[in-house]
Give the backbone structure.
Amino acid sequence: MTGSGLRRFREPPQRTHQDHHLDHHPDHQRAHQQAHPAAGAQVSPAAGPGTARRPAEGTRCELCSEPVGEDHGHVVDMDDRALLCACPGCHLLFAPAAQGRYRAVPRRYLHAPEFRMSATDWDELQIPVRTAFFFHNSALGHAVAFYPSPAGATESLLPIPAWERILAANPELPGAEPDVEALLVDRGAGTDRTGAFVCHLVPISACYELVGLVRLHWKGFSGGEEAWAAIDGFFAELVRRGTAVPYGPGGGDGGGGRW
C-alpha cells in the first residue's frame, strides 16, 4: 500500500512495501488465535466485545508497555501514520480531536442499512471488490479509499467528486473523525446476497481487523467458504454491536461525512 494508509511498525522490517504493516498487527494475530486457540490467548471466540479477556502473551501497550487485553484500544501516530495498541490509560490521554502526534481511535460503531448507493455509484468509485473503507487523511487533506485483499490493505485511487455525491445523498450519516474513523461499505451484505449496500461507521482499527481476516482465511481466486464465513461473521458482529442510523424518506444536499 502507499503512504495514505496506516503502518504497523515505526521501523518496518525487510518486507514488501505493500504488506509490511499488517501481518504482525495484534488484530490479525487475534484472528489467527480465534481460528487456532492453542496458538495464543485463552479466549473463547464466542466472547462478546465487552467481555474481559486474558491478555494474549506478548501483547502490550505500544506507548507504555503495559499488558493489554484482547479488546484493547488503539492510538494513531500521526507522524508515522502507524496504528498502535494502547492501554486504557494511554487511550484516555489522546482524545480524537487532539492536535498532537497521537490521536485516540474512538469506539463508535454505527451502521446505515439503508445507505443510498447504487451499483453505478460503486462502479464510479472504481473499487474492484465488494468491500472498501474510506477515511479522511488529514495529511493529504482529502478522503482515501482502501479495500482488503489477500496481499493486505490495497489503496484504490478515489474519485473525490463521486464520493462526495454519495455522502451528500446520505446526510443522516454522522461525520467520521479524520484519520481515526472510517466508513466501511459492503455490497451484498447479509445471507440473502441482495446486492444492497450497507455502510458502517467504525474505528479505523476495525478496518484493519477485517484486512487481517482476509489475509488469514483467503484461499485461491474466490476466497473459499472459510474466508466468506469469516467476512460475513465480521459484518454480522458490526451490526450486533453497533447502532442503526435512522434514515428519512429521501436524500439531501448536505454531506454526511467530515471530508
